[in-house]
Amino acid sequence: MAHTFGVDLRGIIDLLSHHLYSSPRVYARELLQNAVDAITARRALEPDAPGEVVIEPVGSSGGTLRITDTGIGLTEREVHDLLSTLGRTSKRDDLGFARQGFLGQFGVGLLSAFLVAERIRLVSRSARGGPAVRWTADAAGNYEVEVVGADAGVPVGTTIELVPHRDSEHWLEHDVVKALVTEYGALLPVTVRVGDEVVTHGGLPWAEDALGYGEQVLGVRPFDAIPVEVPAVGLKGVAYVLPSGVHPGARQSHRVYLKRMLVGDSIEGLLPEWAYFVRCVVDSSSLRPTASRESLYQDETLLAVREELGRQVRDWLVRLDATDPDRTRALLDAHHLGIKSLARVDDEMLRLVERWLPFETTDGPQSLRQFRRKHGVIAHVPDVDEFRQLAPVAHAQGMGLVNAGYAYDAEIMERLVALDGPTAARRVAPSEVLAALGDPDAELERALRERLTTAKDVLERHDCEAVPRDFDPGSLPALLVTNVEAERKRDARQVGEQADPLWAELLGSLVESTSDAAQRLVLNCRNPLVRRLAQLTDPALVELTVESLYVHALLQARRPMRPKDTAALNRSFLELLDRAVGSQKG
Ligand SMILES: Nc1ncnc2c1ncn2[C@@H]1O[C@H](COP(=O)(O)OP(=O)(O)OP(=O)(O)O)[C@@H](O)[C@H]1O
């Protein structure tokens, strides 16, 4: 024998309120949506039919909330069929596909009224004829239907009345209702009133003043407003480029309307991740909402829309680059991370980065293109600290270096090589820079090494080995580099394989060092102070000079100062001062 499932309405309402909808506030949206759909249905029969929804919150109409529409209304049969059967809807066709033009489709929305009401009363008269009908239902699943009568003066349309739960009255009061209805429905294409106040806008506010609307929505004046459109899903709107201060990890959130009804303010997944500095406000006629209508269904269509919107933002960037260099630079300043990330996979973005984004170089901040024009190749170091150490050395040798130690830099260099060939960019190993330093005069080196033996304690204290070398400019007394022996040996072998024999030999001499000190102080024998150091006889002065040179080189390398470095700085500075003042007195 066949049986039919029974449904416990209380269980279903509990499911809706705790697991489908995030808050009881959605009741306002569902009622509004049904009213608008009813007007749409009526206008399909009578194009000139009135389109108005009036909401009277608790207080203005006694202890209940009333929502009246001038829609298609319901016949007695439809009331039984559509309102009293869970999941039954008039908004799907015979094959079960959502009908064009309607907001609803699942046949459960009306139940959300039970999130705030213990009883729903509905009076309706169908535009298709027949008497007015009254339907009364409670949250336990009991309902009654009665015919009001053909001559009761009920106009075509529907009035729904909610009798609130004891603790839900505030959801139905004027201020809350007005705020909810305005938030969800301000852009709806019908007139919606809360009491006497019309809350609908009439048009799309971003179409009138995109930047002004953006400022209102974002709380800050956008950098720019890009009109976006995806006709395949009836989508139109604006992509707002944020002015600055957005973190790349920040969650993207967009304001999305479906058929002019708000879905939400923090909808994700509408733009590719790289566009983290863009926020959209869009309305679409055919993107699919989830059953709660609080987010978008993640399907192939949404993926295609995401691609297309990403493409439109990117095209805007390319246009900006071609027409407005100053704004392009300002944009890159604010959002270089997102744009760099895009440059890894997009050649036009790569060119934009190459032309406009300032990189730290031995010639000061400049674009890769500028650097390449001067040096022929983008010689880059893939680590910020390494760059800081090597930059003064390289600069002194007239060797140009680019700091490629920030996010995406290395991949950008690889892309440049892939596009423009191996001469476009080249990674520079530390040993390559050090190898360019010459051998000092033998006599001077011998004298200097003797002094360095005197200052052995100072050098040991700083875990440092001193190496005399000969290089330009003579004004630079010393350089401090990290002695990463293993890495240097590896680099040297690598460079040695590629470099000419002379270079390979120089490299070999550097690598042969057996010191396991963590740092290397490269003293410049061309520098007058270093030359004088070689002649000093007072051991205390030798120590003071070596420590001062060390501290100076440390500051030059822009390394973070550890407490013992700060102590050394104070000690040497004060002692030098003391000696200078003392000698003045004498
Ligand atoms: N104000 C109204 N005027 C006319 N018919 C209505 C009204 N409200 C509800 N109905 C009828 O009741 C049916 C069920 O409504 P309900 O809100 O539960 O689901 P839905 O709107 O079809 O879909 P969804 O669950 O996506 O909102 C509707 O399909 C519609 O036919």
UniProtKB/TrEMBL annotation:
UniProt GO molecular function: ATP binding; ATP hydrolysis activity; ATP-dependent protein folding chaperone; unfolded protein binding
Pfam families reported for this sequence: HSP90
InterPro entries, A to Z: HATPase_C_sf, Hsp90_fam, Hsp90_N, Ribosomal_Su5_D2-typ_SF
Keyword Nucleotide-binding: yes
Record keywords: ATP-binding, Chaperone, Nucleotide-binding
Chaperone keyword on record: yes
Residue positions binding ATP: 30, 34, 69, 158
Recorded superkingdom: Bacteria
Similarity field: Belongs to the heat shock protein 90 family.
This protein's name: Molecular chaperone HtpG
Organism of derivation: Saccharothrix texasensis
